Amino acid sequence: MSLDDFLDRLNREERYASCIAAWRTIPARDAVTAPLPGALDPRLAGALAQRGVTQLYSHQADAFAAVEKGRHTVVVTPTASGKTLCYNLPVLNTLLADPTARAMYLFPTKALAQDQYAGLQAIVDAAGVDIKTWPYDGDTPAAERRLIRQAGHIIITNPDMLHSGILPHHTRWHQLFENLRYVVIDEMHGYRGVFGSHVANVIRRLKRICRHYGSNPQFILASATIANPGDLAGKLIEADVEVITRNGAPRGRKEFVLYNPPVVNRALGIRRSAVLEASGIASELIRSGVHTIVFARARTTAEVLLTYLREALPPKIGESNAIRGYRGGYLPRQRREIEAGLRDGTIRGVVSTNALELGVDIGSLDACVMTGYPGTIASAWQQAGRAGRREDVSAAILVASSSPLDQFLVHHPEYFFEGSPENGLINPDNLLIVVNHIKCAAFELPFKRGEWFGHYEPTDALEYLTEAQLLHEVDGAWHWMSDTYPAEDISLRTAARENVVIIDHGDRARPRVIGEVDAFSAPMLVHTDAIYIHDGQQYHVDELDWEQKKAYIRPVNVEHYTDASLSVRVEVIEQFSDGPPESERAHGEVLVGAIVTQYKKIRMHTHENLGWGKVFLPESQMHTSAYWLSLPRYLSERMHEATLNGALAGLANLIGNIASVYLMCDPRDLGVYAQVKSPFTGSSTVFIYDKVPGGIGFAEKLYDAHDLLLRAAHDHVKACGCQDGCPSCVGVRPTDEALPFAKQTTRQLLEVLLMRAGQARAGS
Question: What's the pTM value of the predicted model, to 2 decimals?
């Protein structure tokens, strides 16, 4: 069965057709080409000809021209549009003209860096030229590092290695920094939030060191489609950039389906599990011979889906290596093996987290199934773009979950298909982040009085670090005086520095490391007595040694998996907005405490709750910013406790989900917490906080969008077809006796809040 046959079946059979909320055909498009630039070295032109390239796509030609004019450039085009040539051609052309010139390539992951290195080396080999390209990361053997520092023309690395392995040792890299002409930053859309804010400061340190050695590199950036590429690129490198968005690559026809699982209980508004529905669709595709990628939002979900697919497919498919999983935590060797299998076609299906969302070469896939909305429009299109290459037809099927955000999308498909992708937001001047990088910068080079750190004036931070006895001021310059190595203790990606190593000790004589997990996620995934799933195999976690950052596991075969619960508390430290503490909207600084306290056992396939267990781990704390919404005191005081609990839970669920729509951010960037009676406001309060130490700017934006949030929440709960509340609106079910009439009371609360907001506007 071909993909077209399956799509016809999807549209024709009632069990599928009744669930289709929207179907859009993205038409095929011919290539827009331009001749090879006249300034291109004939050796490069010959190498391209060997690969069948005699013309460039329009965006490749535009990028070459912009870079040749000396402009910082960002290229914004979809997946598989040939962005790599946008930076490879001008860089290689310059290096052929000036062998002393150097370039540095930054990729967000080691896997992507290795993949791009192979592609770049293929062009160099085809051209028959002496340009030395080297990957440099944590896996690079010590014996090769000296040679790379001395002879490498193009250094391919990642921000983490630049931060901790190159910049602090810049004296060993003086040949690179003295002659650095280009810095390439690929997958720029991934540099947002806390990671992007850190990377912007790493770039500040890089530019500072380059000035010290007398160089001024030109930046070339590449990105998938986002709403503000010029703004994000400008903030990352703190310079004006030329933005190229005209995509000249051809595109095959793509069928994009928004699929809403069937309602299994209309009164309660409960839909069939998105995991089960996605598994069923994906298994039909793979059984039909359609090479398919399935995306899941969480690691556990990915492993559960992998298990379901292997069980649903014939043994010759399911029990072979034709169906694989791919996510963070797999060892590099295993990931390379899976990537190779996807490229050569031996793997027919892969279940992945967003780890395969980036541009790692995985060959040609025909269909993409997304288990739930990935969180952003940009990510959804990026995932959809992993299926379909050039002229071939492809399909993307987004299977909605019961969350309010997913249901908002399927009922408002125009938001997805016609809306702009999200903004990439960073805050390089976040105090916690910038002070950490000022420490690193001072270790690298003394700070002179009057010197700026990019666009940040660092005097206050330098004086603070002096008081902390980390810096010493001598003759108008601050020098590092501590014995510590600051970059080693600063992670660019999370607040936690170390990963937890996962050790299979089923064979006591030969324990082996099978993967790792970041310290932030470890309490949820590998707490003692958790069922950890790796490549479809179940393991019981015998012990999580939190001090040593090791989890000891053994293989088991059970009929359930585990899902941990995170308990959160929020304390207001300072209110930034005007008005008294009891104001109905405010924003400010908060302390968030989080602790995993228990887990539930969930039966495979039926998803029944089989019981609970306790988790004993320390609380983690984070200072961040938050927006909060308080109920008028007279309302909360008059309502019955159970009714108030239900309404508050419903309000938190609605506002928390809809906030990500209006911020156009990933829902995982926000946390939600409700207090029946806040000690700070004296009333029932819903907090929405930035899940970033120090905050990233979301809270203030939510404060400004207060009225819009209330109106959108009211419209959504009003339009929901359930009777008394469901997971798609207020998030609770009427069968829960502690939460009666949650939908009605939540709606009434929103109407009162909207009325009071209107009165406040009229009075101002």
Answer: 0.77
